[in-house]
Amino acid sequence: MGRKRGMPVDGWLVIDKPSGMTSTQVVGRARYLLDARKAGHGGTLDPLATGLLPIAFGKATKTVPYIMDGRKVYRFTLRMGESRDSDDAEGAVTGYSAIRPDDDELRAALPALTGDIMQVPPVFSALKVGGQRSYDMARAGRPPELPPRPARVDRFELIERVDRDTAIFEVESGKGVYMRALARDVALACGTVGYITALRRLRVGPFTEADAITLDKLVTNDEKSSTAPELLYPVATVLADIPALALTEDEAASVLYGRALSLADLEGRVPEVGEGEPIRAMTGERVLGLCRLRDGLLRPVRIF
């Protein structure tokens, strides 16, 4: 017999991921402990990394793109003087440098790596090249040439200089920014080489460290956790930053059936957003789904 389908669990669980586990392993463990039918996560963390891994269950999986687009805050430790093929501590050494920039030189390199930048991803990444994962090609001794990709870095700060070889940075960014690449590039910009020895995600969208729990909190006497559902955040938590529109019961019924509403009928209530920007459709405290403005109509695009 195959695996039971599990229970229809809906909501977000924020796990403080331990080092040494993949994001997929954490999701699988949490899904097992909650006996949940459907689960996904809000942005991969490297096995080496720790910190916030929001896990979406059931209907919350429909809101994953909105948390992926949200702000993320990371803290990483840069080790200077050695380069690694993976740009982190798990890789093989590929080079050395005797140069150690001072704090002012490190800070001077940060503006060029802030804002809208072009970033060459680490070769040990999940990007596909000709249908193959880049990290699979690298492990087979055929590392691909990855072209630079646009990335958005909103804040890049030197937080602490631990010693001559080691510095700690904090980064606020959007999606698709590789911290290993930032660590590599700030070292290169200062005329040396370096790699990440520690990486922690401190924030994802609306979630902070105060919202996170460790995996062992889900375990009760090695049985599936009976208290786990109480630890879930509502599906709509990640939509809090999206402008809201209050609908009447009749309007709500139309939206739930996938019908568009005329803006003329909603005059005075529609929040000011650009064409195609998401709007959170509400009836009372209940989130019905997400809509977008197009051609004078409010069109449902995602119903929960």
What labels would you give this structure?
alpha+beta; tRNA pseudouridine(55) synthase activity; globular; 304 residues; Archaeosine Trna-guanine Transglycosylase, Chain: A, domain 4; 3 domains; Pseudouridine synthase; 18 strands; 35% strand
Q: What fold name goes in the CATH topology slot of the largest domain?
A: Pseudouridine synthase
**Can you give the helix content as a percent range?**
10-25%
How would you describe the shape? globular
- Class derived from helix and strand content: alpha+beta
Mean pLDDT: 89
How many distinct helices? 6
Pfam families: TruB_C_2, TruB_N
GO molecular function: tRNA pseudouridine(55) synthase activity
Protein name: tRNA pseudouridine synthase B
Catalytic activity: uridine(55) in tRNA = pseudouridine(55) in tRNA
What does it look like?
It is an enzyme of class 5 (isomerase). InterPro entries: PsdUridine_synth_cat_dom_sf, PsdUridine_synth_N, tRNA_psdUridine_synth_TruB, TruB_C. The protein folds into 3 domains: 11-70 and 206-237, Pseudouridine synthase; 72-204, Pseudouridine synthase (2-Layer Sandwich); 242-303, PUA domain (Archaeosine Trna-guanine Transglycosylase, Chain: A, domain 4), CATH 2.30.130.10. The mean pLDDT is 89. By secondary structure, it is of the alpha+beta class. It starts with 10 loop residues before the first strand and ends with a strand. The longest helix is centred in the first third of the chain and has 12 residues, at 23-34. The strands form 4 sheets. Strands 1, 2, 3, 4, 7, 10, 11, 12 and 13 form a 9-stranded mixed β-sheet that branches. A 5-stranded mixed β-sheet has the order 14-16-17-18-15, covered by helices on one side. Strands 5-6 form a two-stranded antiparallel sheet. Strand 16 (278-283) and strand 17 (286-294) form a beta hairpin. The chain contains 6 helices and 18 strands.
